[in-house]
Every structure is written in structure tokens, then in C-alpha cells.
Design goal:
The protein has 345 residues and is of the alpha/beta class. Helices cover 43% and strands 15% of the residues. It contains 14 helices and 10 strands. The strands form 2 sheets. A 6-stranded mixed β-sheet has the order 1-6-5-4-2-3, sandwiched between helices. The protein has a 4-stranded parallel β-sheet with strand order 8-7-9-10. Helix 5 links the parallel strand 5 and strand 6. Helix 3 packs across helix 6, helix 3 packs antiparallel against helix 10 and helix 6 runs antiparallel to helix 7. It is globular. It starts with a helix and ends with a helix.
């Protein structure tokens, strides 16, 4: 089925695979900041307020840079900001639509607290407020699903952080340097590449009909979360994720009972940048759980840096989840139930 382009066209009528095939271009998105409002205050803390796919870029930045910069980064996925948020806190409000109620609530709190504020969005109320109040704004290209605009969001968030002196511009530049490499790496995942040599299609075939569980080290935990999001929203499948070493302190025991014939597909993300003990934990966990859970499928992350591997893995997640959606016979693009919930709220 995954090698029949007519079936793919029927089940992916809105062209999600075509959007994903061009994600490498997002890595070189030239971010323009509107309203360069910056009074030179010292930034001591960074908060990004966002939900779902709009929070994911910030989670990646947090785990990528936590050992490289001297400022804490916190990602808020709620209606309020922590008590410590003050005039020396940079609060970036991130919502692709610009109408996410939790993010708008955080913006209101940030204004009342006198925080240094920035906004990244493709439109909606957030853009209106940014224009009215002359708040620094990095616009995202519109017309996409938020989960498929992740690298755009990564670029805008990094640019805003650098603009306010919270991080070095080199991190923004580093993402752009991987654009052509991502183009070449992801070409083998396109819809016209046969499943016999297409890793994204192979992953989908392993996962279809099962609940997928994704495991990664702490560093790459946002990547495992990205796969969960893509499975939920694109494939319309339940999925779960966890990180090492926390997994070994609780969830590990959850696999200890019942037969191995559990309806799950387990995926381990492995990186040469992981701590040596993390690598040992993955190997030992799979060995000790032999006969108690399905054997883990290992996905070896490619790239010469943490951020390269994050980007590589995120695009692979999008391709694989669309192929699962096609096998499931569902449209990979819309999230109708989420939109219905928002209307009721």
C-alpha cells in the first residue's frame, strides 16, 4: 500500500507528505523581527509560553542548550506564569494560530508583571496585540499545521532569544547550516521511494495496529515527545514516551508482568552524544525485559551535533506518522476533534 502512489494521493489528499518533504527549507528561514522593542535590561531567565507543537521548539532548545548557557529556560504549558517571572525575565509567547487561550493568558500575566516580552505567531490575536503594543514579533509563515512548522518555530524562537541577549546568535546560525544536509538526508523518506529502502515507511509498517512507545535520553526527550505528538495528531493513534534514566526508576517495572504479546511497538532513540551510562541502560533494559515486552526497535540518530540529530529525527517522525495514517486509512492533516474542543471552550 505504501508504494502505491494512487493510494497515497487518495489518503493524503491535502499533501502532508509534500509539506514535510520541504521542511529542510525551514532550517534557513530568514527571520525578520518586527518592533525591535528592547530597552537593554538584563535578562536573567527565559520562559516560553506555548502549547502542543508551539511549545516543542522551546523544549528542544531547553534540552539542547541547558549545558551551554548560564540562564534557565522554562517552558510553560498552562494559563499562568511562575511567581519568579519579573522584569528581568524574557517571556516569549508562542502560538502558531495566535489564538491559543493558554498562551494569551500568559501574555496578559507577563504584561502585568512588566516582563520583557516577545511573540512568535503566524497571526491571530497575538499578532494584533504585538502590533498594538509594539511588542517584538517574529512572524511564522501561515497555512501549515503547527506540528509541521516546528523548524520555523525553532528559528523564530532562537532569533528572539538572541535579539534580547539571552543566547548567542551562533545557535540560530547553526540551525541554518544544516539545511542542505537535511535535504539530502530526508530525500530517501519521500513517497516515491520504495518501502524496501525507505526507513520512514519501514517504521510505519512496524508500528501500524499497535500503540507505539518512544524512549530517548534526557537530552533527546523532546524528540521522543515529538514522535508522540505526530502519532497522536497525524496518525490518530495513542502513543507514549519517556526518557532515560527516569524510565529505569518506575516504568521499567511496568513491563515486568503479563506476557510478551503486548500490543505495543517500542522504539529506542540512540545517539553518540548520550552519556555512556545511558547507552548501557538502554542495552540492559532491553535484555532484562526480554520475554516481558516486545523487543525494542533501535533508531540511530544521524548528524554531527545534538541539534542536527534533533532536526533529523523530527522530520523522520513526520514522514513515518503520515505513513501510519495512510495505513490507518485516516487523513493525516486535520485535527478536527481538537478544533471542536476549542470551539466549546
Amino acid at each position: 500500500m505504501l508504494d502505491d502512489l494512487r493510494v497515497i494521493q487518495q489518503r493524503d489528499a491535502r499533501g502532508a507528505l509534500d509539506v514535510i518533504a520541504n521542511q529542510w527549507e525551514q532550517a534557513k528561514y530568514d527571520v525578520d523581527i518586527k518592533h525591535w522593542e528592547h530597552d537593554g535590561r538584563r535578562i536573567e531567565k527565559i520562559i516560553v509560553a506555548g502549547m502542543g507543537g508551539s511549545a516543542l521548539a522551546a523544549l528542544i532548545i531547553k534540552n539542547w542548550l541547558e549545558s551551554e548557557i548560564d540562564k534557565p529556560i522554562e517552558v510553560i504549558r498552562n494559563y499562568n506564569l511562575p511567581a519568579y517571572a519579573n522584569e528581568n525575565t524574557l517571556v516569549i509567547c508562542s502560538s502558531y494560530s495566535g489564538n491559543t487561550e493558554e498562551t494569551l493568558s500568559c501574555l496578559d500575566v507577563a504584561i502585568k508583571r512588566g516582563c520583557q516580552i516577545a511573540i512568535t505567531t503566524s497571526g491571530g490575536k497575538l499578532k494584533e496585540i504585538a502590533d498594538e503594543r509594539k511588542i517584538s514579533l517574529a512572524e511564522l509563515p501561515g497555512g501549515l499545521q503547527p506540528r509541521m512548522a516546528l523548524i520555523y518555530n525553532l528559528r523564530t524562537t532562537l532569533k528572539l532569544m538572541a535579539h534580547f541577549g539571552a543566547i548567542d546568535y551562533k545557535y540560530f546560525d547553526q540551525v541554518g547550516q544544516y539545511s542542505d544536509w537535511l535535504r539530502d538526508e530526508t530525500a530517501g523518506w519521500k513517497k516515491d521511494v520504495d518501502s524496501g529502502v525507505n526507513p520512514a515507511k519501514q517504521i510505519a509498517l512496524l508500528a501500524v495496529g499497535k500503540t507505539s512507545i518512544f524512549y530517548a535520553s534526557h537530552t533527546f526527550a523532546p524528540l521522543a515527545y515529538k514522535w508522540k505528538i505526530s502519532w497522536n495528531e497525524t496518525s490518530k493513534n495513542l502513543a507514549f514516551c519517556n526518557e532515560m534514566p527516569e524510565f529505569n526508576h518506575n516504568e521499567f517495572m511496568g513491563w515486568a508482568s503479563h506476557p510478551v504479546q503486548k500490543p505495543y511497538a517500542v522504539f529506542d532513540f540512540m545517539s553518540q552524544f548520550d552519556h555512556s551510562q545511558i547507552k548501557k541502560r538502554f542495552a540492559l533494559s532491553d535484555r532484562l525485559l526480554s520475554g516481558r515486552r516486545p523487543k525494542a526497535h533501535v533508531i540511530n540518530l544521524q548528524g554531527d551535533s545534538v541539534i542536527a540529530q534533533m532536526l533529523w529525527g523530527c522530520i523522520l517522525a513526520d514522514f513515518a506518522s503520515v505513513y501510519v495514517a495512510i495505513l490507518n486509512g485516516v487523513d493525516p492533516t486535520p485535527v478536527a476533534l481538537i478544533e471542536k474542543l476549542k470551539k466549546y471552550l
